[in-house]
């Protein structure tokens, strides 16, 4: 590329960037400050309360705390590799990406700024988390200062590794990224199950640097992590140069479209941009039985199996939620409610992968002449697969929890909670599109609250699940009581779905 052409491309990018005004920047700062005061301040206060509880110190100083840190460190690498295929750190707006990806400038020059910000974000997140844990152990007299500082250094090094793994996920093809993620997950599981292999695994070095209250600091894991982080940073330029231009542009356009739909409150269409296309089983027969119920069950099962990774992640989400519910039933003090709330939200997200039939039935409620079935009957027919899949996945997670010593009552509660979330999914599927009246601005002395109303309308099902199911599982002392409380929740969800289906569109 000639110098004049290069200057033209760079000038075009700068012209697009210069459109932002000082007023827009001031509004972003104002919105960020308001979000911090309204959202992050209460969350921070709740975390301070959890850390101040004596049961938290018991959990942080337990024998399995270091093993938990090791598992989390490995899990972060797995998540980074998978997320990189959908949204990598080397991301710019579509026009900038198209201009810079088509230039002869090395990617390490044109995309180093967003990658640098991503690495700084991952590193800062882990450093803050490690600093909070180390400060709490230090204030309780359970860890000397050198060990707490060493843990923070190890977290900083691992934050760099996680950021580079995120970039690697963007560089690899989806198949390669999934293979790498599965390999890391298997290696992490093996390291947790057989601690004798831990010194050979990098994420185990993070667990080894965890402040257990020993008088001596384990120096070798910190130096090993420093070496790994340095090597990872040295490869960033080469990884950036290997990024595919068309994939960069496609990813930028995908996330620009997602942002546009999110801006107008259409979260369902926005999240559909991330839904994978069927990659296997296109020749499988989905209609095999004469019975209508069996036909719909097989049809939904085949449809889910055509996106195997999405189905697998849904199974892991529901099974992990059931495991968390069972473990949380014996968790100390203030740790129980946050675990139950998080598990409820994760389970709700996982069951969404099996709810395509429910959404299709709700959207076709005015097409009776085409399908020959009403919307209510379509939903009842499509309900079988998500219920069976949720129960089976919850039984897997609950079975693992019972095998390691969790009470059987917690397993029954977990399965009942999964079924209840399916009922909430039915009500959410029948909600339909957002009314245009909600897009009207709501002016107040504190600013426009129209966005808060849109967010509330979009997240009503998630909030309902978190408040009802998470709180019920956390408060109920035994399985019969929890089931008795969850039964009316199912009835309420069914009533809401019935009302929404009868409401004119």
TrEMBL record:
Coiled coil: none annotated. The keyword Transmembrane helix applies. It comes from the Bacteria. The chain crosses the membrane at residues 27-52, 64-83, 118-139, 145-167, 179-197, 217-240, 311-331, 337-357, 378-398, 404-424, 436-459, 479-499. This is Uncharacterized protein. Keywords: Membrane, Transmembrane, Transmembrane helix. It comes from Galbitalea soli.
